[in-house]
Amino acid sequence: MADRPVQVRCLALVGAVLMLAGCTSTVAGRGAGLPNPSGPPSSTSGLPTSGASTSGSATTPTSPTSSTSPASPLGDPNTADLCAGVRLAAFRQLGTPVFEPSQPAAACYATVMKGADPIIDLDVAVKPANTVPPRSAGRTTTVDGLPVIVRQPDQFMCQRDIWLSNVVVNVGADLAASKTSQSTLCRTADVLVKQVATSIAHGAPRRPLASPSLVHLVMCDGVRPGDLREISAGASIVPANYYYGTWCRATNDRYTLGVQVVFRKTAAKPVRRSTTSGHPLAWFDDILPTSIACDVTSIQQRTADPTLVEAVDLYLIAKNGPLRGQSLCTALSAEAAKVLTRLTLH
């Protein structure tokens, strides 16, 4: 499963904990069919219509050493609108595809639902080239003039990498339920990579930004190794920048703290609001007493699009730590105050 930095549902956050703990499961069954990408691929060989049957494991990316984004056909990854080229109608044979209401900078996430249950995650994220598997790790093809590496799938995901100089756009279809076949995941990934590559090749649209915009900040500037020591039995957390500074993840053997820049729909209404050390927080998820994950948003300001605001999203996952439910959210609230103050945000 892909390592999404933000999860908008508590159950999805719980799944992230299991993933971080390295759990495995057996996937069986066949999913619904999906058409091939619309229009012929710009390639002499074309993209496959199904995934290879041989399993393989994905490489976990390391954090980039710099938040500077090199020049590429994509432009600045932090301001690129990666959702602009994603046409959800192409995935309706699988279920009901929906964009997540909160989209991180340098990424786009959607989920295919069957009723209330997610079945496939559609992920697009821009990463420095040194944080993804090398080009030799997969088969090379071309889509709309852009080089695409077709990675070997496993039972959880099927991924493609669009290589743009030192910038890589990782496109994936990831398992969110137990009855989706590997071949369905790979056909889904092929459709998605065709859409994204076409959008980039024709000039990737820009996100509407606030002024000044959060995308120019480095989120790890708000995190310290000594944070969470009181709830981690004195253990330090290790902060690491991901993407291009807009996502910071800090972890130890008990907890994982995430801080990221997101673009959130204004139509979504919080379940509740609170204030910590003068910082207003919006809580969009119901927290069950036994929950091992908590998520909170600090809304900053409107963008050039009145339907979007820029915000800082913070989440706390209990891997082996004892806090659960509201106690976990209380700890996250206190940490949010520290992070936002260091970033000089309200």
Compact summary:
With 346 residues, this protein is an alpha+beta fold. 14% of the residues lie in helices and 31% in strands. It has 2 domains: 72-207, Jelly Rolls, CATH 2.60.120; 214-342.
How would you characterize this protein structure?
The structure is a single chain. The protein is an alpha+beta fold and 346 residues long. The protein has two domains: 72-207, Jelly Rolls (Sandwich); 214-342. 14% of the residues lie in helices and 31% in strands. It has three helices and 15 strands. A hairpin with a 2-residue loop joins β12 and β13 (279-283). It is globular, with a radius of gyration of 19 Å. The two termini are 34 Å apart. Mean pLDDT is 84; it is low at 7-70.
Helix-strand blueprint:
Blueprint: H1 10-20, E1 96-99, E2 102-104, E3 107-114, E4 117-128, E5 138-143, E6 146-151, E7 157-164, E8 167-175, H2 182-201, E9 238-242, E10 247-251, E11 255-265, E12 272-276, E13 279-283, E14 293-302, E15 308-318, H3 325-342
Antiparallel strand pairs: 1-3, 2-11, 3-4, 4-8, 5-6, 6-7, 7-8, 9-10, 10-11, 11-15, 12-13, 14-15
β content, as a range? Answer: 25-35%
Mean pLDDT: 84
In whole angstroms, how far apart are the ends? 34 Å
Q: Could you say how many structural domains there are in total?
A: 2
Major sheet strand order: 1-3-4-8-7-6-5
What would the principal axes of the Cα set say about the shape?
Answer: globular
Name the poorly predicted regions: 7-70
CATH architecture heading of the largest domain: Sandwich
Helical segment tally?
3
In sequence order, what are the helices and strands, one letter per element? HEEEEEEEEHEEEEEEEH
Total strand segments: 15
- Main pleated sheet: 7 strands, antiparallel
How large is the radius of gyration?
19 Å
